[in-house]
Structure formats: structure tokens, C-alpha cells
Amino acid sequence: MTDLQKDGKKPQLLEDATGSTHIIEIKNMNKSFGDLQVLSNITFYIRNNEFLTLLGPSGCGKTTTLRILAGFETADNGIVNFDGHDLLRVPAHKRQLNTVFQRYALFPHLNVFDNVAFSLRLKKVSKKEIRTRVEEALETVGLSGYGNRWVDQISGGQMQRVAIARAIINRPRVLLLDEPLGALDLKMRKEMQIELKEMQRELGITFVYVTHDQEEALTMSDTIIVMKDGVIQQIGTPTDIYNEPKNAYVADFIGESNIIPGTMTADYEVLFAGKTFTCVDTLFPEAGAEALPVDVVIRPEDIYVKDEGSAHINGTVYSIVFKGVHYEMVVDGDDGFTWMIHDVDPVKVGQRIGMTFDPDDIHIMRKSVFSPDHTKKPSVQDALLQELDV
Q1: How many domains does the chain have?
Q2: Count of alpha carbons within 13 angstroms of residue 201, beta-carbon side
Q3: What is the DSSP string of 261-308?
Q4: For residues 86 and 92, what is the distance between their CA atoms, to the nearest angstrom?
Q5: Are both 33 and 165 inside the same structural domain?
Q6: 156 by DSSP, 3-state: which?
Q7: Beta 51-55 vs 223-228: how paired, if at all?
Q8: Per-residue pLDDT of the chain (390 residues; tens, 9 = 90+)
Q9: Which ranges of 91-126 does DSSP label H, i.e. alpha helix?
Q10: Rounded Cα gap, residues 63 and 42, in angstroms
Q11: By CB atoms within 10 Å of each CB, which of 53, 193, 283, 328 scores lowest?
Q12: For residue 141, what is the domain's CATH number?
């Protein structure tokens, strides 16, 4: 019996300003495969009834994190607290978590009903209860009346729904989903994104979702955790992650971004592209009264195309591509930076234009190892930031 069980308490190891209940808390979790460390001091919490997404490229550690929660992998060290108890001491088959995989792993020799009912039959549940619960599960995923169909008689999206029905029929507290939409075509994926979010609300259970697709994460999540090389880069709401990225990696990974080296000279004032602009950010505390090198982020959709002029950043249009809802333009700026712009009004290749933006469209970030000019010799301020590990 763990100390948590002896005390009878359910301590929250991690602060939550919302006061929400945490169903899972992970603190200082590490995992290595041989000499390769795939998770480094991972710390985060999952609120009850939350849709949380682990987002990052292949190899970032998101699936390993999910597999540790599921019990398919063991952590080298750290704390995984599930509803006040040590989850790492609980065998996988006794955890109140079920997993939906990218490969649905449906039994081809069983029909839809029997696939969903499989785990209940193993538990020797009565036939009457099995029928009731299977029909409820199929109705939840929008497959009422599909029980007698064989797996090879349904579409990929319907197979995904069967896999989810099979997972939720055991009434888990948490559903783990490992890139479950990866095998679907684009149109079906977009439809399933909305359906999954609605399903999560109807079921009232916690979803932990793994994906490398930024649009999926932004569309469905209450909270997004951005990971790279086994390290959490940022945790926040979709709005926070998109509008307030913590470093150049997050800004570039979540949507398109113009990331420009700049210098904050004072509160609400930043110098970049050879001009001084008003912004809505204050100097970082470590700056003191000195100017501080920073990264400036401006999203392509926040740039206004104007006539060339001394008050604007000027450049020459290099390319233009129609994207359906907007034109994507690449501009060679006179400042030596290549700009990306999204605008509904096209311009011509070779045309000279001016670019401008509002103060609240300028986002200031600390310098990091992901900064575009990181290969340059760091300034005194850069060295200070590295020393502070920010």
C-alpha cells in the first residue's frame, strides 16, 4: 500500500488556478530506452472530464507517455497519481483506462456486435446486460443497427467508431487515443474530429489524445501539451498555444509564423526589421533597464498589404499560391527577411508592396535554442537567458 493510500488523502501535487479536480497527475517522469532518453522530467496534470492532447512530431515522446499511462511501458522514475493512488503500481488490466489505437485491431471473424461485446464476454457478463450495453455503446458512436455487419462491410470511419465503442463499453474513467484518425482520409478526419469532441462531452469522461496534427489538436482540445525530444515545450489552451507561443519551436509548429530577431528597448517597444514598433508586451524581468534580444512572432494572417511607403516594411513579392480561403504570398523584404502573408486579395509576382500590422499582432518571446539566429554568437543577454534556463 502506498503512502497516498495509507493517508486516505488525494493530494494535488500540481497547482491549478481553476480549482478543478485532477484525475491524473504526472510529476518528474523519466523514461529511457538504452542510452536514448525519450522522456525528461515530464510534469503535467489532467483535469476530470478534460480533452487533453499530447502534440508533437514523431519521436517526441507523446506515445511513450500514453503507453506508460496505459501500463504498456514502465517509467524509469517519477510519480503518476491517478485519483489519489499510485498508478504505476496498478497492473494494466486493472487500470480504469482504455486505449484506442491507430490500427483498430478489430477481429475480422466477428461482426460489429461481437467485436464490441468481446471484453464483456470475457468478464462473464450476462447476455441481457451485454446486449443492453453494446446497443448503448453503438448508439453513442452513431452505429445503431450496425451490429450484424462484418468488419469488412463497413468504412474506415465506421471501424474507428467500433473501436471507440469497444473501448467505452467497459466504462473507463479515462480514454487514451493514440493517433486514432491517422488512417482516415482528410474529409473523414475532419468529420471525426467534431464527432470525437461531441462524444467526449456526451460520455463525460476524460480523453487523452495523441497526435502530430496541429489542426486536430486545435479543433478538439481543452488543453494542449506541445512536446519535442521528450521535453514539454508549452502547456495551454488552443488559443494560448496559438496566440501566445512560448518559444520559436511552438510558434513554428503550431501554424505558420514569421519569426524575426528583434530587440526590446523599453516596455511596449520593440525594434526589428530596421524599425521601432509599438507592442503590447513589457520587458522581461531579467532585462532590467537594458535592451534585450528577443524573438518577434507575427502570424501571416495578421499582416496587412499596403502600398510601398517609408512607414511600412517594404519588399518584393516572390511567389503567390491560392489556398482556397486565402492567397499565400512570400515576400522578399528589404530588411533581408523572407515574409509570409495570408490575404484574400492577390498581388502580382514581382510587385513592390508595403507590410504593416497592429500592436497586438506582435508577440514577443524570449530567445531559446529554437531561435532562427541561434547559431550566431550569443550576446550577454542571451548568455543570461541560457543561465536562467528560460
Answers
A1: 2
A2: 8
A3: EEEEEETTEEEETTEEEE-SPPPPGGGTTS-EEEEEEE-GGGPEEE--
A4: 13
A5: yes
A6: helix
A7: parallel
A8: 444 444 555 556 788 877 788 999 999 999 999 999 999 999 999 999 999 999 999 999 999 999 999 999 999 999 999 988 899 999 988 888 888 876 767 888 999 999 999 988 888 889 999 999 999 889 888 888 889 999 888 887 788 888 888 888 888 899 999 888 776 777 778 888 888 888 888 888 899 999 999 989 999 999 999 999 999 999 999 999 999 999 999 999 998 899 999 999 899 999 999 899 999 999 888 877 678 899 999 999 999 999 999 989 999 999 999 988 899 999 999 989 999 999 999 899 999 999 999 999 999 999 999 998 754 433 434 433 433 443
A9: 112-122
A10: 13
A11: 328
A12: 3.40.50.300
In the block, residue with C-alpha cell 469532441 = 197
Q: Which of 202, 163, 166, 207 is nearest to 184 (CA)?
A: 163
pTM of this structure:
0.84
Residues 128 and 72 sit within 8 Å (Cβ to Cβ): no
Of the CA atoms within 13 Å of residue 143, those in its CB half-sphere come to: 29
Angle, nearest 10°, between helix axes 156-168 and 127-140? 130
User: Looking up cell 503567390, which residue turns up?
Assistant: 320
* Whole-number Å distance between alpha carbons of 92 and 67: 10
Domain finish residue from 217, 243, 269: 243
Flag whether 248 is in a domain. no
Does 213 share its domain with 283? no
Residues 136 and 278 grouped into a single domain? no
- Same domain? For 167 and 284 the reply is no
Q: Which domain holds residue 134?
A: 3-243
Amino acid identity, residue 261? P
Fill in the amino acid letter for 192.
M
**Coil, strand, or helix at residue 148?**
coil
Identify the domain boundary among 216, 243, 270: 243
Cβ burial 144-158 (10 Å sphere, 16+ → b, else e): eebbeeebeebeebb
The C-alpha atoms of residue 19 and residue 21 are separated, in whole angstroms, by: 7
